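Entry for the shared binder. Reason: the reviewer on the internal report wants the predicted structure included alongside the sequence.
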Amino acid sequence: MTATLVWGVAYAGFGLACVLSGTSLSHFGGDAEGMGWAVVAVGMTAALISAAVVRYGMRPTLRVLLLSACALTGVMAFSLLMDVITLMLGQGVDSPASTANKALAAVGAVLLAATSRSDRSDHLPAVPDGTAVPKPSAAPRSVQLAAWVGTLAFLPYAAMKTYWASGGTFAGVAGEEMLAVSERNGASGIFLALESWGLDPTALLALLGVFLLWGLVRPWGQVFPRWTPFLRGRRVPRSLPLAPALLGAATLAPYGVVGIGYLALVTGGAVTMGRGDFPSEGDALLVAWIGITAFAVYGVALVVAARSYWLRTRPAA
């Protein structure tokens, strides 16, 4: 609770500093004050609620307010995963301040969620070290089916990106043209080097995402962190696989679902979509359907798998 209180004050201070310095927290710049004041409001609200919990203890009303603030910070952290992927590929983000805001908001969402359940965890009976996490188990068949669907949804996307990286032509664009577009858009040397070797970085990240997905539904996913030397022989915290899973689910699921709605409108002729670097709008739409469908289906599968993992690894009461 104290950590949440400190975070709220620090988050509000961050927003105020951005307002006073004229730093925009929008991903695309502009509107320097609006988003900054919103951050101040959310941070101060979270701090006041946390102070009330410290003073009066957890009450039903305070729990609802904490969860509401958690939802708000979760919205502010939206698309953090995209920035993380960009940084992993050695590229700079469009707005460092916006990325910092998303990272702070993600931390706040975790703290607020934990605080809302603090009174319940305090009354759990103590268990010896190493026995809090149940024996590794597989997820139910329905959850594993969702994992299969999420995995298969990425196959067309990975095949398309790998085909381009190997020099093939798809949707009217050759691999050399895609490499030139990436270079023109500021892709890093690492990204361009992998592309020149026929390895698309985003396809490799999709493979890593599938590994995470199956780690959440299979027994080995509850013990694989112990394979690393610095964790061997120690109790593995549940948040180790859950943190990237929740981050991915919170970003990809809404991004993909909203994207499918938009693409459906484009397909139906209700709205138009720019063709970008493709020869026609139809080519751009085809590529968009492949990518957005993969994000949507995988994101939903990640939500299902993360929930199953959470339930299967709950400490025994």
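Summary line for the report: The CA atoms of residues 153 and 294 lie 5 Å apart.
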